[in-house]
DUF937 domain-containing protein (Luteimonas lutimaris), 209 residues
Amino acid sequence: MATLTDDLASQLQGAPAQQVAQQLGIDSSQASSAISAALPLLMGALGRNASQPEGAQALFGALQNDHAGGDIGSVLGAVLGGAQGRQTDGAGILGHIFGGQQERAQAGVAQATGLQGGQANQLLKILAPIVMAYLAKRMFQQRQGAQAGAAAAGPDALSGLLGQEQQQIRQQGGLGGGLLGAVLDQDGDGELGIGDLMKIGGGLLGGGR
């Protein structure tokens, strides 16, 4: 079953991945692989945040107020063009998604994808507004598709959607699922240590050899 992450990743292949590659100074194939690794981490972390009522409420409010109405292409263009605003504030969005774990997330993406730390950070800043715009569009469509009298999309629906997404990412495993687990779960404390980075580097990068 295709996940939201799979759907978004497919929309970022081709020209969008080439734009990201140019921004990061890497080739398109590496950009595509890095996007496919980073997106599950972002989606999974949002799912973790939305598992708490206050987190789901805050995220739904941000989607509704700051990210509704944007399509992926226009948001990507605005981010790469240096446009300023809540919709394109990748650093601010990452702060809300990861909190104190932002550096660990950046380190995990860099270790898993072969990007330099600055490139991994830049990639996450590019993708964060795109993920938010994508989720806002999905929630808006869900609300529009609700039958008359049915409960409109709200924080509870968002929590359920992202909770299911997080579960599917973990079940799929692979680079994205492994990275999500390493950044959020290893050692039982949610912190990414040296041992966890070695697991990413050896288990995920070396797994396909």
